[in-house]
Automatic annotation (TrEMBL):
Family membership noted in the UniProt record: Belongs to the acyl coenzyme A hydrolase family.
UniProtKB keywords: Hydrolase
Entries under PROSITE patterns matching the protein: HOTDOG_ACOT
Name of the protein in question: Acyl-CoA thioesterase YciA
């Protein structure tokens, strides 16, 4: 049995990170590409569990940046299975910040990541039964 750090209706907290100054863009916010990479990592962890092996990202759908991420935010990346095909799985990834001394929760971004299960030759393979 796997024990997630935290769960709620968003799914399981797969990653919890604090962005560093090196991730700031020219507007003083966290670079969107950095958070996208964190989302891909978290989604890949969940997809790999579902596939019981290697996966590859094949699509990112409906990506939406809701609020800017700020230096000092504690960022939680949630992920959950949203859909399943024969060889692929769609993983919803939501990112929430805990901000300031009031510990305010701020929704930052959300996206649907599609991963395909890979065999030893890096070709698509069927997912295990649910």
């Amino acid at each position: 049995m796997r024990y997630p750090l935290t769960t709620d209706d968003r799914g399981e907290v797969v990653l919890r990170v604090v962005p560093q100054l090196s991730q700031i863009n020219t507007n003083g916010h966290i670079f969107g590409g950095w958070i996208l990479s964190q989302m891909d990592i978290a989604g890949g962890i969940v997809a790999g569990r579902i596939a019981d092996g290697a996966v590859a990202t094949v699509a990112i759908e409906s990506m939406k940046f809701i609020s800017p991420m700020l230096v000092g935010d504690i960022v939680s990346v949630y992920a959950r299975e949203e859909r399943r095909g024969r060889t692929s799985v769609g993983v919803r990834v939501d990112v929430v910040a805990i901000r300031g001394s009031e510990q305010q929760q701020v929704d930052l971004t959300s996206g649907l990541f599609t991963f395909v299960a890979l065999d030893e030759n890096h070709r698509p393979r069927p997912l295990p039964s649910a």
